[in-house]
Specification:
With about 450 residues, the chain is of the alpha/beta class. It contains 14 helices and 21 strands. The protein has helices spanning about 25-40, 55-70, 80-90, 125-135, 155-160, 185-190, 220-230, 255-270, 285-295, 305-315, 340-350, 355-360, 380-390, 435-450, and strands spanning about 15, 45-50, 75-80, 95-100, 110-115, 120, 145-150, 170-175, 195-200, 235-240, 245-250, 275-280, 295-300, 320, 325-330, 365-370, 370-375, 400, 405-410, 415-420, 425-430. Helices cover about 35% and strands about 20% of the residues. It is globular and about 65 Å long. Strands 1, 2, 3, 4, 5, 6 and 7 form a 7-stranded mixed sheet that branches. Strands 16, 17, 18, 19, 20 and 21 form a 6-stranded antiparallel sheet that branches. A 4-stranded mixed sheet has the order 9-8-10-11, with helices on both faces. It holds the Pfam family PGM_PMM_IV. This is Phosphomannomutase/phosphoglucomutase. Keywords: Isomerase, Magnesium, Metal-binding, Phosphoprotein.
Length: about 450
């Protein structure tokens, strides 16, 4: 038996290492605590599902038993992508749900993404589950909740296929990295009228081919090769639980999510003129002008899928997106992040063009870095960021945005340093109009970080 540890209760989800910080016993406790939280909000049913990880069956079983012990009914969707659990909370008469998923983490990880009474919970709502477990006397409800299974596949696929339409036939390559999206992606896009070349769509929790995380270029090399070797026009890639989208052009260019957002924003704003479009602090500085040019109001916000979802609800915005690949459509959809759905919407836009890659490659861009990570000891990331906020100076800047870390804007680029909410890391990203400007901005960040922590091992 693993002893329950507060360290697995992260900012946006619960995540641990199997048999070290997470096992069936812990899953049972989390289920019971979540069930009590659901009942406190008047919720009587909870939807659950799991991804393709090897530890999924035992965790999902224990989670269900924990939920039932609190007195709530469980609707088990079985092996599904994370967005299919979110979909279930919108269509099955149950507004709460838990997905058993390790997302894009290594094979020995697993965890839980949660929706409570229609809200994606984060921060204190998640640590509150730990407090609830600690304070609970171990008793169960006098009448345990019921357990039922439900196959949501056809309803989910049909909901998308019935609404999202391509303008012409297209051949695409799809790389699921052996994550759970592989069980659905081929059927979805074929159902829309696409011809599909499938890469690593067999669900395998060992992830034998490459890591299921399209945010990193090394994980997209097989897809790039498939586009070179076949007559597929465009490539889609998904993370381990199917809530994030990667996109590759015919000529092997990676179209990062902040540039995907330009096309999504223009499309959504054609039906919602003047609407606010949300994006996180890691996104390109070209996105705000593109949103304005398309008739919308850009709104930069904190990073974190749960935070963006909550802000979307608060503002009534029809679209939000993160650099990490979480895209949230409230326009024609439900406002949750869904990589499979985002892929469908992207194909709807791209098939209006004879040369989709030309459209994508023409989107504005600068020299930029991917996410860079400064690895630190537990808690040290917050200490270093506090020092930077207090002391750091950035000569030549136009403005410093502090909604999430420090985003320093210059006339010719930006630099970002923010503390990760899930690991002891400072996340950085840089963008500039020229390589020389990029080097100058990185140099400024290097000197202020080394002033705050002289032994820091910087990733640039």
């Amino acid at each position: 038996m693993v002893t329950l540890s507060k360290t697995i209760f992260k900012a946006y989800d619960i995540r641990g290492i199997i048999d070290k910080t997470l096992d069936a016993g812990v899953a049972h406790q989390i289920g019971a605590a979540f069930g009590r939280a659901a009942l406190a909000k008047g919720e009587k049913k909870v939807v659950i599902g799991r991804d393709g990880r090897l530890s999924g069956p035992s965790l999902a079983k224990a989670l269900a038993e924990g939920l039932q012990s609190s007195g709530v009914d469980v609707i088990d969707l079985g092996v599904v992508a994370t967005p299919m659990v979110y979909f279930g909370t919108n269509v099955l008469g149950a507004a709460s749900g838990i997905m058993v998923t390790g997302s894009h983490n290594p094979p020995d990880y697993n965890g839980f993404k949660m929706v409570l009474a229609g809200e994606a919970i984060h921060g204190e709502s998640i640590t509150g589950l730990f407090d609830s477990i600690e304070a609970h006397d171990g008793s169960s409800a006098a009448t345990p909740g019921a357990y039922s299974t439900h196959d949501i596949r056809a309803e989910y696929l049909q909901r998308i296929i019935g609404d999202v339409k391509i303008s012409r036939p297209i051949k695409i390559a799809v790389d699921c990295g052996n994550g759970v999206a592989g069980a659905f992606a081929g059927d979805l896009y074929r159902g829309m009228g696409c011809e599909v070349v499938e890469l690593f769509c067999e669900v395998d929790g060992n992830f034998p081919n490459h890591h299921p995380d399209p945010a990193h270029p090394e994980n997209l090399q097989d897809l790039i090769r498939a586009l070179q070797e076949t007559d597929a026009e465009i490539g889609l890639a998904f993370d381990g639980d199917g809530d994030r989208l990667g996109l590759v052009t015919k000529d092997g260019q990676i179209i990062y999510p902040d540039r995907q957002m330009m096309l999504f924003a223009a499309d959504v704003l054609s039906r919602n003129p003047g609407a606010e479009i949300l994006y996180d602090v890691k996104c390109t500085r070209h996105l705000a002008p593109y949103i304005e040019k398309s008739g919308g109001k850009p709104l930069m916000y904190k990073t974190g899928h749960s935070l963006v979802k909550a802000k979307l609800k608060e503002t009534g915005s029809p679209l939000g997106g993160e650099m990490s690949g979480h895209i949230f459509f409230k326009d024609r959809w439900y406002g949750f992040d869904d990589g499979l759905y985002a892929g469908a919407r992207m194909l709807e836009i791209l098939t209006k063009e004879q040369d989709p890659s030309a459209l994508l490659n023409a989107l504005p861009q600068s020299d930029s870095t991917p996410e860079l990570h400064l690895h630190l000891k537990e808690g040290e990331n917050f200490i270093v960021m506090d020092k930077l906020r207090a002391n750091a100076e950035f000569p030549g800047n136009e403005r410093i945005i502090t909604i999430d870390g420090l985003r320093v804007e210059y006339p010719d680029g930006f630099g970002l340093a923010r503390s990760s909410n899930t690991t002891p890391v400072i996340v950085m990203r840089f963008e500039a109009e020229t390589p020389a400007a990029l080097e100058r901005i990185q140099g400024q960040f290097k000197s202020v970080i080394l002033a705050a922590k002289p032994d820091a091992e910087l990733p640039f």
